[in-house]
Amino acid sequence: MNYVIIGGSAAGVTAAETIRKQDKESSVTLISDEEFALYSRCLLTYFIAGTINEDKLYFKDKNFYKENDVKTYLGKKAVSIDRKKKSVSLEGGTKISYDKLLIATGATPKSVDIPGIEKKGVFTVRKIDDARAIINMLDSVKEIAVLGGGLIGLRDAYALRQRDKKVTVIVKSPQVLSQMVDMDAARVIASILEKNGIKIMTGVAAKEITGKGSVEGILLDNGERLACQLVVIGKGVKPNTEIASVAGLKVEDGIVVNEFLQTSDKDIFAAGDVAETYDIARESKRINALWPCAIEQGEVAALNMLGEKKTYDGSLSMNSVDFFGLASISMGITKPKEEKKYEIISRTGENSYKKFILKDNRIVGMVLVGDIRPAGVVSALIKNKIDVSSIKEKIVDDNFNYAKIMPVVKEFGDKFKQEEFRDTVLSFK
Amino acid sequence: MKTKDQKPKTKDIKIYCDITKCVGCRSCEIACAVEHSKSKDIFSAVREKPLPKKRVTTENIGAKIISLHCQHCEDAPCIKACMSGALSKDEKTGATLHDKEKCVGCWMCVMVCPFGAIVRDIENHIAVKCDLCPDRDEDYACVEACPTGALFTGTKEEFEKKIKGRKK
Ligand SMILES: Cc1cc2nc3c(=O)[nH]c(=O)nc-3n(C[C@H](O)[C@H](O)[C@H](O)COP(=O)(O)OP(=O)(O)OC[C@H]3O[C@@H](n4cnc5c(N)ncnc54)[C@H](O)[C@@H]3O)c2cc1C
Ligand code: SF4
Ligand code: SF4
């Protein structure tokens, strides 16, 4: 068998590892257009902040490819897939034939369509090269503008503030993290950022990036001008589906896959930020462009490429951030559109905020700010779609923990997919 | 079979808590903190700064109590969520290992551990979890410290036998 993987990040590397664990004979080939291999993208803001160095960016051992006997084409872009001949063409003309192919091409940051965007000093943060370029500029930069008040924008701002720069975040919505949390939680998070010197401007948008060749400032849509020498766009991502759509595979928001992560071509699979999968909380298709989802999908896709019929349970939106010691976690549906269909249980404390979103007695989402201890236990209730009627009064309590759900574990034993749940209730009568 | 008091090192052996016997005395918590202190001595440990961190907690289930720690899940959600590569599986022992040098304190693992077994070490800004007492050759510190015999090291079958025997 010839296994070929396009993309050498969370999904692609996990797939290579999973295939190799079970099949020592077949050839496994991985193509990535990045030279620098095996680094975790999620650590780039820590790298920009200066909290870690390049050596710590690796999420796998540097010799991973060699040890797992994976043939690599690094720094090479895959440009097309010939589904009839079952081969992938690389830039430069090399052709690689496959029996089973995985597309794990990930995503690219969204840009903004305003004049001046091409100027020197405008960045997005997705690849090691972006991070290196930003770090190289830092010495000559005093003021930085970040466009976007979502998670990505705030992570970028947080990193740059740790380099002692004057950072301003420009947020179109009336609050930060508008996709993720409501006004109350956003206020708590914004206030810790502001207390630590990050300026947040809500309800305004950048109209133009000004300067001669390089960035000198930003013109806002309220007429105000802001001096800055660096602009970081932190606005979300779009999936790299081009190679799939050109090959005629079914693509909607992302590459469409079935429960085996198989595309519309039975020998081609997709995983990670590029794939549109079933969302457990929303019960519909969605791209959850997240590290844990990419890892899980890489594994499941690989098992199916190996011929095991392994169903993917589905993805779940989830995120965890820590700004200046204030931790926040969100998961699933956090801002339901039709509020009437949902039940909301929340509690606001001093510097903490908890909100759980329920539908038909199942938790489908949560937001935790400050006290994040219950997150993991609740994540299990969400993932396993557990009826929580008997314990729901307790979930906002300060001492909510695993023990509080044990009666439910006892009751719904088999609904919890991991064996370890049952181990904990063996002596619980 | 393991000989008594020797720390076992195979996949199918783990630490179980017999809920009917746990009285919530927290001896396991103290023993765990001491085991993870610099001095490994309770009298010095309480004066260490930062204070050594325990990785096991006693939690109430109504009137009952359980001593709970990392289950070293076979298919561990925390490992899949860890974006720095700090969490990994020891294929031989089945232990879920945490590398504090690689950890950046992003709390992705806290977000997904179904047992709430990972705690935040705020001072060092890293995750802390049960590491199965790497410095010990004897049985685990918590198990050894448990005065009621609620904590038990062994296979699932051995534990099931033990709790069955107790009922009769
Ligand atoms: C700064 C930052 C912070 C983040 N923080 C978090 C976080 O805290 N938590 C979280 O869950 N997620 C986070 N993410 C998201 C996470 O990094 C992604 O979800 C994850 O990397 C997706 O993995 P993937 O393998 O699907 O794709 P990617 O990581 O995007 O990798 C795809 C790879 O394929 C390559 N490629 C694309 N097209 C081709 C082609 N045609 N030929 C060859 N190679 C190609 C790309 O260059 C890339 O190397 C963060 C991302 C960034 C950028
Ligand atoms: S930390 Fe939690 S998820 Fe990870 S192995 Fe232990 S119990 Fe399982
Ligand atoms: S807190 Fe540390 S161990 Fe946990 S997921 Fe983040 S890097 Fe990994």
Concise structural overview:
The complex is a heterodimer of chains A (429) and B (168). Chain A has 429 residues and is of the alpha/beta class. Helix content of chain A is 24%, strand content 28%.
Describe the structure.
The complex is a heterodimer of chains A (429) and B (168). Chain A has 429 residues and is an alpha/beta fold. Helices cover 24% and strands 28% of the residues of chain A. In chain A, the strands form seven sheets. A five-stranded parallel sheet of chain A has the order 3-2-1-7-19. A five-stranded parallel sheet of chain A has the order 9-16-10-11-12. A five-stranded antiparallel sheet of chain A has the order 22-23-26-25-24. In chain A, 46% of the residues are buried. The model of chain A has no long low-confidence stretch (mean pLDDT 96). Chain B has 168 residues and is α+β, with helices and mostly antiparallel strands. Helices cover 24% and strands 19% of the residues of chain B. In chain B, strand 2 and strand 3 (64-68) form a beta hairpin. The mean pLDDT of chain B is 92. The chains are: A alpha/beta (429), B alpha+beta (168). Chains A and B meet through helix 8, strand 22, strand 23, helix 9 and helix 10 of A and strand 1, strand 2, strand 3, helix 3 and helix 4 of B.
